Amino acid sequence: MAQHESDSLITTEVSAAETARSEIPDETVLRAEELDVYYGEEQALDDVTIEIPDRKVTAIIGPSGCGKSTFLRCINRMNDQIPSCRVDGSLAFQGKDVYDEDVDPVALRRKIGMVFQKPNPFPKSIRDNVAYGLTVQGKTENVDERVEESLRAAALWDEVNDQLDSSGLDLSGGQQQRLCIARAIAPDPEVILMDEPTSALDPVAASKIEDLIADLAEEYTVVIVTHNMQQAARISDKTAVFLTGGNLVEYDDTATIFEDPEHDRVEDYITGKFG
Amino acid sequence: MSTETDPNSGITGGDADAHRRRDRRIRRLLFGCTSITVLTTVAIFAVLFDNTFNFFYDVRFHEWLIGLVTEFRLFPEQRVAITEFLFDTEWRPSHADDPRFGILPLAAGTLLVTVGAAFVSIPIGTATALYLSEYARPRTRKYLKPTLEVLAGVPTIVYGFFALTFITPNIIAPVAAAFGYDVGRFSALSGAIVVGIMTIPMVASISEDAMSSVPDELRNGAYALGASKFSVSTSVVLPASISGVMASYILAVSRAIGETMAVALAAGVTPRLTTNPLAEIQTMTAFMVDSTRSTMLVGSVEYQSLFAVGLALFIMTLAANLVNDYVKRSYREVYR
């Protein structure tokens, strides 16, 4: 626990602490080993091995179609919704392979929240949106407190506290996305997956979400897929670069990836020479 | 280059007027077809109203209107009091000595069948829609939905026959007997069940369309929060599609109100103010079928009562359609 606290203190500081932070040994929360994913005949992920540390922000970057989102959706088994999807290899959450027979994907998703590319609030009130996860998970105690805490944590409380009963759809796009973040953290998951959470938002709204992600890493492990390299550089501790064919080409501290990547292809991608 | 029009540019020419005329002709033709529907509706209403007026006042509305204008004849004497029509509890228009024209027994018959039918079609139709939209594999849905829609195309007289020869003797009678009740050849329950079955496809098909159009993002959002499939179906998909689902209910109800042949065969021809579903009753529509087949004098009160009942039916289904419109508008959620 002490380990975590020191981690999160550092995480809130800016990149000057980058090197210091990387020296602290990470506790792995997610570990993929030789993970292959197929959609029918097509291979979407090829032999991915990665260890994602607890209470850090891990960014996943790469060109379109490189398997970033596929990887993300493997973690909470959202790929189960796609009938043609097949997964080989192992993907462990807190040491337990999430594709084991005895794993209940519903229970898994209660530990691993997700925020999507397009804000997708339910056509319900703001309060009911945030409380939805609590309701379906049977956590019916102190719902109002949890709703308020989550909205505060998502930096939305001050904007909506006087309209909790109005529809979540009446909010602006950026507010809707923060509502979705509040909704994801209300049931208090361990990990939050974010699939290009700012790509549908204007720059001001996007920067609010970025600030929020840094705060979230104090309590949660954040894995974020992004198309925006500056964003990855700004907010993440670790960066994984996927290139075409579903290959994880390089995975390291964000500073290393952006300043001194090992592979030329990664450097080309980051400097915009391809992708 | 000058600003003068180049005669050889090809964008001017003598065809312009011809094109305009053609467009106008086509527009008039299409408008003509459209107006047939509108005019028919207006004509039906006018005939119903004209004759209903005759039922109450022994003079057709348009005749009275002409009389009023040419000879200043004011309101004629009432033949049947409107209060009798609305509140009397007896309907026996062909009674020789004491005919009575209280629509309540017929309206109650229609209501009994309609409410009973809703208890069948709404739960089963909604469950079917949820299954097709949320649970069925794409292949299953591909074959099942057209099958369901075929069910909607079965002639209603066939359903009535089915109720008379199968539902009543093989389902209702044994069950009623087990509880110590006796049930005759006709019963409101039989009519309600068969009209309910008949309107299941309507509820299922329209609700399924509404549920399928709920964006997948909402489902994924709920799944990602650890919702089970049942939670996603009932707490996200159903509320998000509620306007379409409600619309299907109201359409089914309005169809049940107007349904004729099945109830005429299944529910009977005895007007009776009752809430007992095992009793033989008569609906408004069944009365109209029955009367038009019997030998009655054109122009008699009994004959005119057909129009009054018809107008009442017309108003009921119109009301249902207006409610449908209102529900659709007020429940509509806009997805961005």
Explain what the structure shows:
The complex is a heterodimer of chains A (275) and B (336). Chain A is an alpha/beta fold and 275 residues long. Chain A has a single domain, classed as Rossmann fold (3-Layer(aba) Sandwich), CATH 3.40.50. Chain A is built from twelve helices and ten strands. In chain A, the strands form two sheets. In chain A, strands 6-7-8-3-9-10 form a six-stranded mixed β-sheet, with helices on both faces. In chain A, strands 2-1-4-5 form a four-stranded antiparallel β-sheet, with helices on one face. The longest helix of chain A has 14 residues, at 203-216. The relative contact order of chain A is 0.17. Chain B is mostly helical and 336 residues long. Chain B has two domains: 15-71; 91-331, MetI-like fold. Helices cover 71% and strands 1% of the residues of chain B. Chain B has a two-stranded antiparallel ribbon with strand order 1-2. In chain B, a hairpin with a 7-residue loop joins strand 1 and strand 2 (100-101). At the A-B interface, helix 4, helix 5 and helix 8 of A face helix 8 and helix 9 of B.
- If you average the pLDDT of chain A, what whole number results? 87
Major sheet: arrangement of strands of chain A: 6-7-8-3-9-10
Q: Which series of helices and strands of chain B comes N to C?
A: HHHEEHHHHHHHHHH
Count the DSSP helices of chain A. 12
- Rg of chain A to the nearest angstrom? 18 Å
What is this structure's SSE topology?
The complex is a heterodimer of chains A (275) and B (336).
Chain A: H1 2-12, H2 18-23, E1 28-39, E2 42-53, E3 57-61, H3 68-75, E4 85-93, E5 96-97, H4 105-111, E6 112-115, H5 126-136, H6 143-153, H7 157-160, H8 173-185, E7 191-195, H9 203-216, E8 221-225, H10 229-235, E9 238-243, E10 247-253, H11 254-259, H12 264-270
Parallel strand pairs in A: 3-8, 3-9, 6-7, 7-8
Antiparallel strand pairs in A: 1-2, 1-4, 4-5, 9-10
Chain B: H1 15-57, H2 61-71, H3 82-87, E1 91-92, E2 100-101, H4 104-135, H5 138-152, H6 156-178, H7 188-212, H8 216-224, H9 229-240, H10 242-258, H11 261-266, H12 284-293, H13 301-331
Antiparallel strand pairs in B: 1-2
Membrane topology (chain B): Multi-pass membrane protein
Keywords (chain B): Cell membrane, Membrane, Phosphate transport, Transmembrane, Transmembrane helix, Transport
GO molecular function, one term (chain B): phosphate transmembrane transporter activity
